[in-house]
């Protein structure tokens, strides 16, 4: 993640202090010109978005690991309590009456004589018999390892949260730089004038014959404008956060969701290139930049 196939330095060098688990630290982009002066703005933006996705994937993976470990800790503690109890009973040469659950509604009582050993499940349908002291030592080590692992994951999650926030700031700065850059090119006559369509409800994509009809959804309002090479779409979303937004860009369609609810959806009036297209968020709105697949002028954003 520190480097990419295009050689764009998105993360700090390996000689810098990084996360103990070797999670790379993203650079803080003071000025977008630092990278956009050397590489194409669209390329830098796409690489930052890829890095952001990787951080998000790592975050979700660590959260799943943490939940799994947190669920195991109580079981290990119960195992320790049981082993200590059986050890005490064995030292006093006392038998123990234990109630077993045979199934959901059937229980049975059995008398356990002191044997000096206990059987532990090790996983993968494997049970091993240990002396009490060895069982206690094994369970104690397992508990310590699990708690240390949880603590390490908590640190990683804090580190990842910082990297995600920094990456989102970098994305916003590069995007804004691209807007200014394109405006300057238009003023210099190197790009055609942008065309802006009036706000109107977004029509739903016509249903495909092989699929059931899509239910009617209120998509809200949007604004759009186009230049020779790209189309910019803006849709308002209150209280927008990156983790709450899902954007799907296909060659012939666009979908924007907020908290699982579709706020913008339709079949595009022209074809776009998903690989070069990007999206970002700012105050109460989502901005999508679609790179045109050809130089044709779009009569509208969505098909009627």
Describe the protein.
The chain is an alpha+beta fold and 304 residues long. It has two domains: 1-94 and 133-208, Helix Hairpins (Orthogonal Bundle); 217-292, Immunoglobulin-like (Sandwich), CATH 2.60.40.790. The chain is built from three helices and twelve strands, in the order H-H-E-E-E-E-H-E-E-E-E-E-E-E-E. The chain has a five-stranded antiparallel sheet. A hairpin with a 2-residue loop joins strand 3 (117-123) and strand 4. Helix 2 runs antiparallel to helix 3. The radius of gyration is 29 Å and the shape is elongated.
List the main descriptive attributes of the protein structure presented here:
alpha+beta; Immunoglobulin-like; 3 helices; Helix Hairpins; 37% helix; 25% strand; 304 residues
* Gross geometry: elongated
Q: What count of helical segments does DSSP give?
A: 3
Low-confidence stretches: 194-219
For the biggest β-sheet, the strand order reads 5-6-7-12-11
